[in-house]
Amino acid sequence: MAGIRELPSGVSRFERVGAHTHIKGLGLDENLKAVKIKDGMVGQERAREAAGLVVQMIKQGKLSGRLIILAGPPGTGKTAIAVAIARELGANVPFIQLSGGEIYSTERKKTEVLMEAIRKCIGVEIHEQREVYEGEVKSMDVKLSPHPYNPYQRIPESVRLTLKTTKEERTIEAGSSIAQQLIAQNVSEGDVIQIDAETGRLVNLGVSTEHSKSKLYEVGSARRVPRPDGPVKKEKEFVYTLTLHDMDEMVARRRGGSLLSLFFGASESREISPDIRASVDQEVKEMVDQGRAFIHPGVLFIDDSHLLDLEAFSFLGRALESELVPIVILATNRGVTKIRGTDVESPFGFPLDLIDRSVIIMTEEYDKDSIREILKIRAVEEKVEISEEALEKLTELGSKTSLRYAVQLLSLASQNAASKQRSKVELEDVDRVGKLFVDVGGAAEYLRKYEEKLLKH
Ligand SMILES: Nc1ncnc2c1ncn2[C@@H]1O[C@H](COP(=O)(O)OP(=O)(O)OP(=O)(O)O)[C@@H](O)[C@H]1O
Ligand SMILES: [Mg+2]
């Protein structure tokens, strides 16, 4: 038995409903005008249109090294807009999300965390012309010889390979490294392989569709590829995209760990030294100059960035002036407040020179209609059925307190309905959870009332 088990039809995927799962994009039309309700987005038109322009410039590669501040009161959709920007940019543009608080750790310097995040946001598309041997294996003759230290064991010494394409046939002889790779990758007659002429790296591409073996295989057990075309030895272009951080790690690994890790097995330090980064930058710049690589600056989004301190801000400011930088978006819900780590007050708690260098997108409080629409969208997303009166009540609560509170109450009300074996949320559910749970204002009032009785430490 192959151990294959069929699942009953209608098996559903485990679905998670996060706070922003309903956001599918910025909801703009082709002229970058916001449609009131689209892509899960409601209202907040000005901020969405501004974000649309930003996305367009990012896509055209015009915005690298810029700073964008998303500012507005809590729950007005700053994080939602950043999520929408990521969706609009698509999978090819790196988008890294970080919270201001994440840079503080006992193990790593905060500038290091930021540096790594910045380098993860820069994609390098590398085009590489390689000389390769490529073809279907017609015959393969591996010569074995005794192991020099263990004559009882036989190891592959060399191989004679005949490769075939639709045009020609060619026989090559190769040493032990290729012979070993052939065995390790289980290559046999009828497989299509590719060998890098310079490095000898071998890839088993799959079974040739022309070979009789391809008919023997069970469905799905091997990849089928057509027999290659043209000559066996040829120039081929490879395109792959890495981030600067991937390249840093590769170089760091190539250079090996410290002596300490060699002798004592100490875990390698996670920090990548500045000279590794400098050499990667150098290499990338050379490739770009030669037309072998293209840079795709992505987006670094730092949520709750009022949690950054003066050091982090100055690091960011300096990093934005270097050549290989992403677009940085900072979100904050603070007004005029102290910059962390100083006694200086400033808008958003950001240093003035940084604000000076940025463009600012403001989000505004929602009106009642928008709140109602967002609640409706959330109800669909969470698969909650809700009656008209219950929705009206939630909208009212939302406009009196906050959108986020109303969104929270929606899930709680649905839980309350479920506990009463009802599938639809009614007014009484909203009323009940509204009484059981309090909003920020209610909590503050309670704390003031019982100030004396509550413990302080
Ligand atoms: N315009 C909008 N359209 C649809 N949903 C929205 C919109 N604005 C906000 N939301 C949703 O409302 C909730 C609160 O918004 P969000 O978390 O984006 O606020 P925020 O401005 O980041 O708040 P904070 O300052 O507290 O971080 C989220 O579930 C979000 O997806
Ligand atoms: Mg947020």
Per-chain topology:
Layout (H helix, E strand, L loop, with lengths): L36 E2 L2 E2 L2 H15 L7 E5 L6 H12 L5 E5 L10 H11 L1 E25 L7 E11 L4 E6 L1 H9 L6 E6 L5 E7 L4 H4 L7 E2 L7 E11 H12 L3 H6 L9 H16 L3 E5 L1 E5 L6 H10 L7 E6 L3 E3 L6 E3 L4 H5 L1 E5 L5 H14 L3 E2 L1 H13 L2 H17 L4 E2 L1 H10 L3 H10 L8
Parallel strand pairs: 3-14, 3-17, 4-13, 9-10, 13-14, 18-19
Antiparallel strand pairs: 1-2, 5-6, 5-8, 5-11, 5-12, 6-7, 8-9, 15-16
Helix pairs in contact: 1-2, 3-9, 6-8, 11-12, 11-13, 12-13, 12-14, 13-14
The site of adenosine-5'-triphosphate (ATP) has 22 residues, from strand 2, helix 2 and helix 13.
Give a written overview of the molecule.
36% of the residues lie in helices and 25% in strands. With 457 residues, the protein is an alpha/beta fold. The chain has 3 domains: 37-121 and 298-362, P-loop containing nucleotide triphosphate hydrolases (Rossmann fold, 3-Layer(aba) Sandwich), CATH 3.40.50; 125-289, OB fold (Dihydrolipoamide Acetyltransferase, E2P) (Beta Barrel), CATH 2.40.50.360; 368-449, Helicase, Ruva Protein, domain 3. The strands form 5 sheets. Strands 5, 6, 7, 8, 9, 10, 11 and 12 form an 8-stranded mixed sheet that branches. A 5-stranded parallel sheet has the order 4-13-14-3-17. Helix 1 (45-59) runs parallel beside helix 2 (78-89), helix 12 (388-400) packs antiparallel against helix 13 (403-419) and helix 12 (388-400) packs parallel to helix 14. The radius of gyration is 30 Å and the shape is elongated. The termini are far apart. The mean pLDDT is 85. Bound molecules: adenosine-5'-triphosphate and magnesium ion.
